[in-house]
Amino acid sequence: MVGQVLGHYRIISKIGEGGMGVVYRAHDEVLHRDVALKVVKKDAGLRPEASQNLLREARSSSALSHPNICTIHEVGETDGELFIVMELVEGKSLRVLSGDTGLPHESVLRYGVQIASALARAHDRGIVHRDLKTANIVVTPEGLVKVLDFGLAKQIGSAIFEEPTRSFATAGDASSVSGTLPYMAPEILGGDAGDYRSDLWALGVVLYEAVSGRLPFEGRTGFEVTAAIIREVPKPLGPPVPPGLWAVVQRCLAKEPIQRYQRASEVQAALEAVQSGAIVSQAPGPDPSVLNTTVLHSVRHAQVKKGDFLLLIGTTKGAFILRSNTQRARWDIGGPYFHGHAVYAMAYDGRGERRRIWASTHSYWGTVLRSSDDFGKSWTVPREATLRFPVDTGVSLKNIWQIVLGPEDRPDLLYCGVEPAALFETQDWGESWSLVRGLFDHPHRPRWMPGNGGLALHTIILHPQDRQQIFVAISSGGVYRTRDGGATWTAQNRGIRATFTPNKYPEFGQCVHKIAMHPDRPERLFLQNHWGLYRSDDSGENWNDIANGVPSDFGFPVLVHPRNPDCVYVIPVESDQFRCAVDGRLRVYRTRNAGNSWEPLMRGLPQKGAYETVLRDALVADSFDPPGIYFGTRSGQLFGSLDEGRNWAKILDGLPSVICVRTAMVDDATSGIKARAAAHTKSWQTRDSGRATNKSRATRNT
Amino acid sequence: MRIVFHLPEALREFGDGQSRVEVDVPAATLGDALAALWTRYPGVRDRIADEQGQVREHINIFVGDENMRYTGGLATSIDSASEISIVPAISGGAEGVQKSVMRSGNKIRKYFRINSAVNVGA
Questions:
Q1: ipTM above 0.90, yes or no
Q2: Fewest CB atoms within 10 A around its CB: which of A80, A196, A520, B91?
Q3: Architecture of the domain spanning A92-280
């Protein structure tokens, strides 16, 4: 070919050869510049229609203009030969640069940011690379990254991707096309077409390889590599690789696309954050933590007095306090507190002399735990977050999902469940918090995966008699139990199905949405899983399916009746993909025989077009007899029942999306109060819900 | 060396209520300047950076008109004429911030990224 003229390109020399064809340096006789010219092999396995598709793909890719994408100038066909004219990039491939030992992590971060930026641009234009690997990423002597062959793999690939899967055992040379297999995402190996998230998987492989010089998934045969990609967890990248970079790689290499970053721009931002972190950490630290108090203005406060009953509502845009008396008929609304902050966890602490409301607030400024001792009129503003991961963990707090009080006689003791999944404890009334290391250092922890809402420890259950026993639930990690006060933890997931892993009954890794226990029957637990409704009669050692007659066993909350250990409430949603009330009918399901059968409760709930979702902490009961049951929806409605679910009424609508609902009795309920409450049960549902609704409109300004 | 910081509304309660803060300190990089800022106003640090010292994902810091993410991160060099703006990426509820930025005459709106809504797990 050398010396020949293709169109107006004179071929000067051969640069290289890959599975797809031969690449030449050529001179553009019209524009007087050197270009790279790739001639697609006639025997590259392309059918006639595939070559037309290739032309179309390449033309659309040629519209991509980005400093880190090798520009495609022209795509043509001459004498039956396809050729692609590209920007001539001089430099070394990342494969070559990585060598056997990898590059300094600073360089990898610098290159990674550029690769992610290139992917972000292409994905925005609907173009998926599909063959990202270190061999087709070139770094120029100036340190500029160029990603080659965008959008070309789709058509070429369909013809030749099958081959490497078979021939990998003999190929082994990563620079040839058969080296592609180690970069393929599990879903592609599973037969899916894959999408932009498969590129993010490949980016994870690229970063891993660039920083370590080795591939995350290896094997002697194609079969072994495939098996490793589908099942294995890559060997951790220890120091000097910063934990932040390892975390980014791990998230890119999540087996399920939904658990990866969802956009290349997120990977870019994460890598940039790691980049800047290395410098920030050298800055001098601030003064020790000081608690400020801020008095909020232009917020309506509920006037709470002794004997009042409260509902604490955490939403995506702030918190609300609903006040009523023991009749729970009329409601005053306080709030919104923490404008624009998401409140995932609230709790009322009335132990000892205290009357304290706890709330976690989450925004792009971070997550803090705050409290109010005057029912919302003022809240603490920790100058430095009181709940934080120690620096040596390499982990940062993302959110606080659960606040749980210690026993009545230990008012100093509280627990928080957080994201990323970990348990924190305070023994000084919340002044200082410490990470429960026994769980954090559990060997399973690196293999827990984030669910849709993140990797969260969202449920903490203290054993009512045995102070040493605590149950926690993690999405996606499963149920864990300690019997020695938190020093050691055991996974307790036998019988719980994981729909999203090849092994349907793994030791751990299940996406448990909620667990519940009745204090009178502590050996028995109920569990709402990501698909699946279970009961354990042996403290979580074994779980049995109890989805007998629910329309769907997918849902978030599970609530045990406070006075009847056999009575349990769930609110099913249609499916993983469609997380809305089944058939648009909002129904609570109740069992009164510990799950042997379930009945729908719907009186007073919308039964048409009600595509509602109730999140895991948005269903609660109060302490009256009979108990009031309450739940909030993602559409901002709050429903309640004072007769154990037979009749429901809307207490409020127009709230922001409800995340959690908690109840509080200001001062302990006495038997006299309980009696009065019972007498008024029936009057509530119809009489005052409308009035409360009107009030809610006045507060709809978040 | 006098460095000017523009604080968004959300951080003013940690900066004596001011939207414009001047710190007089020798600083070669943005990292030095920020360290000086939170030595004086400690509450600002945890809002901008996490426990690992990484700038929070949805916080942008601009030196003049340039986002530090594209100019070398916290190693971005600064001089006495530098004005540093701390801005949350726009995603619901940032209206006040946007207004304050507009008032300060910066042209930084073009760098704002649109972020997806908070995901609460369903």
A1: no
A2: A80
A3: Orthogonal Bundle (1.10)
